[in-house]
């Protein structure tokens, strides 16, 4: 084959990594989640610019490709974000953005905050609105008993408290 018809990688352009998968669920975000997405966007933009400026010194262009892929993902999430503000005034019903304190059958209490997918962090008890626990809690009110389906069986939880971040 003639060399004129082949493309050799000279390292001048980074590889384009495939985009990260985007959830098919509505992209609801809390005010805090939207602020976090905006901060992540700014950070990634700065990282991409820094890597592009210094790429002639890079032996590996993979970090630039990763940063560009992550920036595309965050831009897509920002473009589809649906801000869900907390309810005005007192509300004892579990809705998106609620922090819910529940008690299990043994009386052990735990609190969870229902957030958007990008904001979820189970270690911090920030659970996605599409998780089984959140789906069990949504629309419940203080005093209600909900059933949380788990792989080990159904757990009954009593809703003890519902609060919203301002």
Would you write up a description of this structure?
Residues 1-28 are annotated as: Disordered. The longest helix has 23 residues, at 31-53. Strands 5-4-3-7-6 form a five-stranded mixed β-sheet. It contains three helices and seven strands. It has helices at 31-53, 62-80, 132-137; strands at 28-29, 82-83, 98-103, 109-115, 126-128, 145-150, 153-164. Strand 3 and strand 4 form a beta hairpin. It has 166 residues and is an alpha/beta fold. The chain is elongated, with a radius of gyration of 22 Å. It folds into two domains: 27-83; 98-164, Transcription elongation factor, GreA/GreB, C-terminal domain (Chitinase A, domain 3).
Describe the structure concisely for a colleague:
With 166 residues, the chain is of the alpha/beta class. It contains three helices and seven strands. Residues 90-164 form the Transcription elongation factor GreA/GreB C-terminal domain.
Rg, please?
Answer: 22 Å
How would you state the average pLDDT, rounded?
A: 90
CATH H-level homologous superfamily name of the largest domain: Transcription elongation factor, GreA/GreB, C-terminal domain
Cα distance, first to last residue?
66 Å
